[in-house]
Amino acid sequence: MGSRQTPSSCSKTLETLDLETSDSSSPDADSPLEEQWLKSSPALKEDSVDVVLEDCKEPLSPSSPPTGREMIRYEVKVNRRSIEDICLCCGTLQVYTRHPLFEGGLCAPCKDKFLESLFLYDDDGHQSYCTICCSGGTLFICESPDCTRCYCFECVDILVGPGTSERINAMACWVCFLCLPFSRSGLLQRRKRWRYQLKAFHDQEGAGPLEIYKTVSAWKRQPVRVLSLFRNIDKVLKSLGFLESGSGSGGGTLKYVEDVTNVVRRDVEKWGPFDLVYGSTQPLGSSCDRCPGWYMFQFHRILQYALPRQESQRPFFWIFMDNLLLTEDDQETTTRFLQTEAVTLQDVRGRDYQNAMRVWSNIPGLKSKHAPLTPKEEEYLQAQVRTRSKLDAQKVDLLVKNCLLPLREYFKYFSQNSLPL
């Protein structure tokens, strides 16, 4: 079934409803969620997908309290403690804040781990860590085609019930706890308006100056509209499924502008509106009579033209990438203009750096994905820039793709098998 190592056998015509609430935000407020889910998923028959709803009835012995995360079930079932007073990730009773997706708490260390890991994705387009506890290892993958979430064996066995991981592993098609129309599975209770709760959690607990946008439920996602400056990223967008070959506006749109010298606000407003603005300094080895700082200033100027109106609530993202060409003064200026610190993306093969780029962006997850470079690493990378005449375009595309993976939580994507670049 849907563990990361096993290919999916589930039909990819399944659609995901907006299951944040059971009120008027649902597509059809007059019909029960279970009925809506089945109507919107004609490919799912009773024997094609199993639903894990009930907690295991196995009794717990009051005389032998367990240790570790097993305490969660014991405290709730035997000691009648509210699950909001227990950290879902580690089982401690030293709760710092609420878990944003499911009823339960988070201690301070687990809160930090959750913030760092939630928007990290693997090359297969799914999250790198468990949606509940943000741990790694072997993970169950949700097989709804519009969902990117994964869950670890330990979480489902402890929070849903012992033996649940075996049941899920035997299923032909498994749909996760945030996609099912049922809000409770054992001790696992999905929060109402969990997308709003996630945004509020990130804005309040995150250390960065940029707020994130609320993630968008699959049935509300629209095709992405991209403005690409100085470099065409159509291959990257197609690999992610955001663009379809030969499609019109139904499969996403891309406007590529190589020279923006004479571009004015009226032009950008005519081409747009846009959901993503991409720009970069010139590739290494390219013949250009402009300094690297010119690209940053022009990107910032065009970005101001593309920004949505202040009252707009639609997600809007931007990303500027530097091929390690900006001077230290230019980097400080870029940080001041774009109002966020840079991170350095590294393509490391063995002990060698194959490629690296500095990135400024408001896309979630970048800040936690890459630790700051040491002075020795910086020196090595700068030497690499001086000795190499050009960067491998495909390796650059791979770095760009990894930056854009979190956008699958916001925009419609197609071509399920198109991720490898």
- Give the helix proportion (percent range): 25-40%
Q: Numbering strands along the chain, what is their spatial order in the largest sheet?
A: 9-8-10-11-13-12
Mean pLDDT: 79
Stretches with pLDDT under 50, minimum 5 residues: 5-9, 11-19, 21-51
Structural class designation: alpha/beta
State which percent range the strand residues make up. 5-15%
The number of distinct β-strands equals 14
Q: Measured on Cα atoms, how large is the radius of gyration?
A: 23 Å
Task: State the helix count.
Answer: 13
Which series of helices and strands comes N to C? HHEEHEEHHEEHEEHEHEHEHEEHHHE
Task: Write down the overall geometry.
Answer: elongated
Organism: Mus spicilegus (Mound-building mouse)
Protein name: DNA methyltransferase 3-like
GO molecular function: enzyme activator activity; enzyme binding; zinc ion binding
Keywords: Metal-binding, Nucleus, Zinc, Zinc-finger
Structural write-up:
The chain contains 13 helices and 14 strands. It is elongated. Strands 9-8-10-11-13-12 form a six-stranded mixed sheet, with helices on both faces. Strands 1-2 form a two-stranded antiparallel ribbon. The protein has a two-stranded antiparallel ribbon with strand order 3-4. Mean pLDDT is 79; it is low at 5-9, 11-19 and 21-51. 28% of the residues lie in helices and 13% in strands. It is α/β, with parallel strands linked by helices. The chain has helices at residues 33-40, 71-77, 108-117, 153-160, 164-169, 194-205, 234-239, 265-271, 292-306, 328-338, 366-369, 375-387, 393-404; strands at residues 97-98, 105-106, 139-141, 150-152, 184-185, 188-189, 222-223, 225-229, 253-257, 276-280, 317-322, 343-349, 352-361, 411-412.
